[in-house]
Design brief:
It is a single chain. By secondary structure, this protein is mainly alpha-helical. The protein has two domains: 3-69; 85-151. The chain contains eight helices and no strands. It has helices at residues 3-13, 18-28, 34-41, 54-69, 85-95, 100-109, 116-122, 136-151. Helix 2 (18-28) crosses helix 4 and helix 6 crosses helix 8 (136-151). The longest helix is centred in the middle third of the chain and has 16 residues, at 54-69. It is globular and about 40 Å long. The two termini are 22 Å apart.
Length: 155
């Protein structure tokens, strides 16, 4: 799952328009143009498609957290230079203030079964013996379940 896929899915799920996307990047600490956002949202085979870099998705997700939860002590979080699915998943969880039970409900929407033990392994530090990397299928099903929960099954 590419960073562009995550950006597209969050935009669709929360019905963000171009200006709201630009504002989320700004909240995370980066000024972007409408053209940049548009190119990141294009399909992979489009000639104007641009790949979203790790730091740019981290900035967007930080802006998403600020938008949903508010600023923490008036500072902008430092974006990660490298991202993996575990970090992306954790940032979405923080932004939406999701508990383990709420995350399991989201997965249920996508008819994907997950236990609390599996979830806790995803949110552990990488050097912990029970840490588990978040695979694309896991993140994809979470984003699909989130979309179904937010927009409803008929949309």
């Amino acid at each position: 799952m590419t960073h562009n896929d995550v950006l597209r899915k969050l935009r669709y799920t929360f019905d963000y328009n171009d200006q709201q996307m630009i504002d989320l990047f700004a909240a995370g600490g980066k000024i972007v143009t409408r053209a940049e956002v548009s190119n990141w949202l294009k399909k992979d085979d489009h000639e104007e498609y641009k790949s979203l870099q790790d730091i740019d998705l981290a900035i967007f997700l930080n802006g998403f957290i600020i938008d949903k939860r508010g600023k923490k002590d008036d500072s902008i979080p430092v974006p990660e230079k490298t991202l993996n699915n575990n970090i992306v998943f954790r940032k979405i969880k923080i932004a939406l203030n999701l508990t383990d039970d709420a995350i399991i409900e989201v997965f249920d929407q996508a008819t994907f079964k997950v236990s609390k033990t599996e979830l806790s392994a995803l949110f552990r530090k990488p050097d912990h013996k029970h840490f588990r990397p978040c695979k694309d299928q896991f993140l994809r099903n979470f984003l699909m379940g989130l979309q179904l929960k937010v927009k409803g099954k008929n949309d």
